[in-house]
Request: fold
Amino acid sequence: MAGTEDAYTAEPFVPKRGGLPALRKAAAECRGCPLHRDATQTVFGAGKATARVMLIGEQPGDQEDRQGKPFVGPAGGLLDRALADAGIDPADAYVTNAVKHFKFTRAEPRKRRIHKAPTLREMTACGPWLAAELALVEPELIVVLGATAGKALLGSSFRVTQVRGTLLEEEIHGRPERLVPTVHPSAVLRAEDRDGAYRGLVSDLRVAAQALA
Reply:
């Protein structure tokens, strides 16, 4: 599929049939945008097709890119703890990202890779994978983790600070969905008042837990 990355859409790579394993296998070969060139591998969603809640973050980080799994770095550990504290079993959640390849910059060669926010064009290119995940998992609730994921799902005017911890009803990829937005767990790790930021995250996730009750 020469030149497909210039089209900025994953659509040609998404299989028309099969379950999550078929999706994951196909996503490993995605060349729908230029991000695949520098990333180690595609980082697809993880969890059961029967999960009641889907958590959607921005993009894989450095650890996720190396291991090929979402939310395995420090932010993922914090998220699991916050879910448990809010009364949601992490094993009952499907976790994924709006963008499936790690986008980064380096100050110098061989230096640490620094996360770089994906553009709206890159998020839109990756949208067909998210649409396919939603269609297969059919979650009762989506937890939106951070501003970039919110923009990918709800458009560029989304502001996480305005709607965090509230239950929204929106049409996402042609399906009516219930969503609870909150901050990305990496924002908690960066916060000056980390305890306060963590309590805020747990409080938002409790709203999600109540919506699932």
